[in-house]
Each structure stands twice: as structure tokens, then as C-alpha cells.
């Protein structure tokens, strides 16, 4: 079935410009590609991709999202470049520019900053509240997190003046701190024009142990984000969260790579955004071979990704990394 879809789309991509504007292709020459065997980062576009770049203290919201080209035409140049890459790509190759975003600060981040990471990991993250702050299940944005998302919204509006290519599809983790960040970021830019965000289970945070990462049931999600698209296969209750075990970084990397393969097989969009979590973003970097960089709450990183399903392509598998249990508390971490 996917093979047939792939063939149809390939025909459209090499067809006339009118054919490109059908729902199967996209206006930037993007296409769907099933059975991806290799993802790589296209270097030389964003400064944060450069292995020698020191991102400590760097705020890409204030620097055209890290785009190296600083000319007034920078976004039009980028759009033309990506379109050309897609139009010249063979039937086995496609390019997508992915804006991967981290949610704004949530009550769990606040609690972690109050108690410190050792005490958070061994004790507080396993509970839902300290009697004052509640972070589980499914932590909400706190007021700092809302302000951070509003700042991201303003930063997009600044770049829109210079023609930044907007995401054609908006993806979200099912956790409320991410979905609400997506909403605040895009409500008066894209959601008001009929864009419907797609919620994907596999873009959620590291699964297990921390109650902040246990998701709400479907009826809460539907009520909070009316009309948003939820996969029909999504179980009503969270079937994945476990109070004893947590996914490791490598397990998240594998899960995110799998979801990216699904996304590339289904979505011909060239520009898209994913609003998710620090663990998901590290998994994304692992999945596509991007260097690891820290992304602050309310931050995001654009990455130009090349994908191929060429039969001879291979990619380093992500292996190892069994699920982990919570660290034991030491005298130090329980002192609070
Ligand atoms: C990156 O910059 C920070 C502060 O500007 C500095 O403390 C740190 O040593 C730098 N790291 C490297 C690897 O140069
Ligand atoms: C309760 O939490 C808030 C942050 O939400 C903090 O400002 C306040 O100091 C806390 N109160 C107590 C009694 O710990
Ligand atoms: C879904 O979750 C909400 C909030 O926890 C709860 O009030 C509601 O009863 C749940 N629905 C079902 C059918 O379990
Ligand atoms: C989205 O954000 C806007 C602006 O903050 C708010 O008015 C609206 O209620 C939010 N909608 C959802 C579904 O969260
Ligand atoms: C695929 O990915 C790896 C990184 O795992 C890279 O070194 C390799 O050159 C890529 N390309 C192909 C066509 O396999």
C-alpha cells in the first residue's frame, strides 16, 4: 500500500507545477517517502548545526532562528534553496525543514528548580505534588511558561515580516504543556486560519517514573484542545506510563526515529513544526544524527533534514539502553 502511494507521489513531483499543488505533493517540491533508511542534517544553513559553535548563552529567537544568511532576503533565499533541493532530488530523496520546539516552563520544571535535580529524580518526580505545587499527572504550563510561549509567538511575527516559511503542518506531543505551548505560539498565526494540529503519542516525553509525563485521557485532551487531530489508534487511557521504569535516551531515540519514518511516509509538507519536550528533542537529534544541544524551556531549533529510502542507504542503528529505575536518594538529595 505504501509502495503505491510512493509511486503516485513520485510522478507528481516530476510532473507539472500544477500537479505539484495537489494535496499529494507540496508547493516546495516535498513528497512522501516510505521506508526511510537514512536521515541526515544538511549543514551550513543554521549556525547551531556547526559542531564548533558554542551555543551556551546563545538565543536564536533574537538571531533569525540561527539562520547563517543575514540578508533581508534570507528567508526567501532559504525557501528557494529548499525548493530547489526538493525539485532536484531523485525519487528516493526528500528534504524537510523541521522546527522542533520545547514547551514553556511547566510546574514540574519549577519544582525541579526548587528541589534540585538529584532530589527531583529520586523523590519528588515520583509524587504528584508537594502540597503547594502540583505537577502530575500531565503537568501544566506555569506563568513563566506561558510568557515564554508568548515570546516565541512574537519572535515568529518578527520573522514573518521578512518572509520566514511557516510550518504547513503542526505536530504536538499529547502532553498539555506542549499542546498549550503550540496553541500560544500559533493561535493567531496559523490556528486562526484553519490549521489543525496533529497530536502524536510518540512525540511525548520520556515515558515512565515521573508523574508529570503521564498523559491525560482522551476526553481531557479533546475537551482542552477541541478539533485537534488525534490518531484513531490512540488508546483512551495512557497505556505506556509505568511507575517503576522509565525509558532511556536510546529508547526515546528509537521511538522518535520510528515516528519520523511514519511522518515522512504520510506528510508531503516541506516545512513543519513539532512541539515536544527536552527528552524528545534529544531523541530527535539522536534519530537524525544532529549534534546534541540543550534547548531551554520555550526554545526551539530549526533543522533541515535530508531523508532517503534508497535501497543501498544504511544508518547507524540506535541500540542498547534498557529502561531504568529511579536513582536511590542519598543523604544529600533528601536534605530538602
Ligand atoms: C562556551 O561559552 C561559555 C560561556 O560563554 C564558556 O563558559 C564555555 O567554556 C564555552 N565552551 C566551550 C566548549 O568553548
Ligand atoms: C508555593 O509555590 C509558589 C510557586 O508556585 C511559591 O512562590 C511559594 O513560595 C510556595 N509556597 C510555599 C509555602 O512553599
Ligand atoms: C479522564 O480524566 C479526567 C481527569 O483526570 C477524569 O475526571 C475523568 O473521569 C476521566 N475519564 C474517564 C472516562 O476515565
Ligand atoms: C489558545 O491560546 C489563546 C491565546 O492565549 C487562548 O485564548 C485560547 O483559549 C487557547 N486555546 C486553547 C485550546 O488552549
Ligand atoms: C546514512 O547515515 C549515516 C549516519 O548513520 C551516514 O554516515 C551515511 O553516510 C548516511 N548515508 C547513506 C546514503 O547511507
From TrEMBL:
Pfam families: His_Phos_1. Residues 1-25 form the signal peptide. The keyword Signal applies. Keywords: Signal. It comes from the Eukaryota. SMART domains: PGAM. Residues 317-336 are annotated as: Disordered. One of its GO terms (molecular function) is phosphatase activity. One of its GO terms (cellular component) is cytoplasm. InterPro entries: His_Pase_superF_clade-1, His_PPase_superfam, PGM_Phosphatase. PANTHER family: BROAD-SPECIFICITY PHOSPHATASE YOR283W-RELATED, HISTIDINE PHOSPHATASE FAMILY PROTEIN-RELATED. This is Histidine phosphatase superfamily. It comes from Kockovaella imperatae. The lineage of its organism: Eukaryota, Fungi, Dikarya, Basidiomycota, Agaricomycotina.
Amino acid at each position: 500500500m505504501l509502495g503505491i502511494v510512493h509511486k503516485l507521489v513520485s510522478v507528481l513531483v516530476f510532473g507539472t507545477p500544477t500537479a505539484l499543488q495537489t494535496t499529494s505533493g507540496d508547493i516546495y517540491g516535498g513528497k512522501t517517502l516510505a521506508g526511510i533508511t537514512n536521515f541526515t542534517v544538511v549543514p551550513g544553513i543554521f549556525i547551531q548545526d556547526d559542531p564548533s559553535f558554542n551555543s551556551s548563552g546563545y538565543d536564536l529567537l533574537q538571531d533569525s532562528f540561527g539562520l547563517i544568511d543575514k540578508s533581508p532576503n534570507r528567508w526567501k533565499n532559504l525557501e528557494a534553496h529548499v525548493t530547489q533541493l526538493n525539485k532536484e532530488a531523485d525519487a528516493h530523496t526528500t528534504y524537510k525543514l523541521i522546527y522542533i520546539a520545547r514547551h514553556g516552563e511547566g510546574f514540574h520544571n519549577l519544582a525541579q528548580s526548587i528541589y534540585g535535580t538529584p532530589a527531583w529524580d529520586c523523590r519528588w518526580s515520583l509524587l504528584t505534588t508537594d502540597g503547594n505545587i502540583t505537577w502530575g499527572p500531565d503537568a501544566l504550563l506555569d506563568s513563566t511558561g506561558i510568557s515564554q510561549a508568548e515570546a516565541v509567538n512574537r519572535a515568529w511575527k518578527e520573522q514573518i515580516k521578512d518572509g520566514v516559511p511557516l510550518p504547513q503542518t503542526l505536530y504536538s506531543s499529547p502532553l498539555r504543556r506542549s499542546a498549550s505551548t503550540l496553541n500560544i505560539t500559533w493561535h493567531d498565526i496559523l490556528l486562526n486560519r484553519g490549521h489543525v494540529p496533529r497530536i502524536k503519542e510518540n512525540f511525548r516525553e520520556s515515558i515512565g517514573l515521573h508523574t508529570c509525563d503521564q498523559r491525560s485521557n482522551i476526553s481531557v485532551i479533546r475537551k482542552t484542545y477541541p478539533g485537534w487531530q488525534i490518531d484513531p489508534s490512540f488508546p483512551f487511557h495512557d497505556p505506556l506510563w509505568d511507575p517503576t521504569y522509565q525509558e532511556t535516551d536510546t529508547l526515546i531515540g528509537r521511538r522518535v526515529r520510528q515516528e519520523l519514518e511514519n511522518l515522512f511516509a504520510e506528510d508531503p509538507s516541506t516545512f513543519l513544526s513539532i512541539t515536544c519536550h527536552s527528552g524528545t528533542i534529544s531523541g530527535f537529534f539522536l534519530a537524525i544524527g544532529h549534534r546534541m544541544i540543550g534547548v531551554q524551556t520555550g526554545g526551539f531549533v530549526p533543522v533541515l533534514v535530508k531523508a532517503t529510502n534508497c535501497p543501498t542507504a544504511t544508518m547507524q542503528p540506535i541500540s542498547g539502553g534498557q529502561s531504568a529505575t529511579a536513582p536511590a536518594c542519598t543523604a544529600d538529595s533528601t536534605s530538602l
